[in-house]
Design goal:
The chain is an alpha/beta fold. The protein contains 7 helices and 14 strands. It has one domain: Vaccinia Virus protein VP39 (Rossmann fold). The N and C termini lie far apart (about 50 Å).
Length: about 280
Amino acid sequence: MNTLEAARRFFGDWVAAHAEATDPRIATAFATVPREKFIGRGPWLALAGEGGYVRTPNDDPALVYQNLVFALLPEKHLNNGEPSLHARWMSAVAPRAGERVLHVGTGAGYYTAILSELVGREGRIEGRDVEADMVAAATRNLADRPNIAIVGRSGLEAPLPESDVIYVCAGTTQPARVWLDALAPGGRLLVPLAPGWGRGGALLVTRADPGFAARFVSQVWIFSCVGGQDAAAAEALEQALQRGGEGEVKSLRLAPEPPDATCWLAGDGWWLSTAAV
């Protein structure tokens, strides 16, 4: 085993273990997809918190197999997200072989490729992004994966394909109704609810029979979804997160069912409840 292969295998195992992912396919997927292919030519810029970026000393691809965030378009604060966070989200949303996935905010396609590994050749993925440079990069980087179609259009723009998994990689202040409507029976939506660049939470919504089960999977700080931020909703979300208790959320309710004493957060035509479906 050469150094790069060893780095990839260790990376996959470490990321999956850190995310407490019990599905061994997640470790395999992270060890298989060549991350350096999706973040441009090295040396690379690694995010160092609010201090900005630190440049890698050279272009050795083994350097990118760490739990670091690398820049895609640093001038726009667009990055290739933290691997262990995505491993946790993918473990929660649990893509299965043959399923249909809508990936909102594909970036350069790295996590789209990992989703492709999880659904296999019989699965289908539609990736959407509104950033032209990212659409071009993802289209180029994923050209060898015939089960993926990249579309340069907002993931909030209907019509959306019926999906078993909707995986959103941008922060919004509410779960969009078009996403809920596009979920197949038993379908899962993973969406970061975040007020701008402030602390948010990754919400997992599952279409049950009837209604929607819901729970928060992790905290998150993430780039905002274009068209997915509302000032009033952001303020309400921020206040709810400051109060705490998001770990008690168990379901998502839609109008006309009015919020009751179990309401943790109410939005326009929807609310999160601490009661089960």
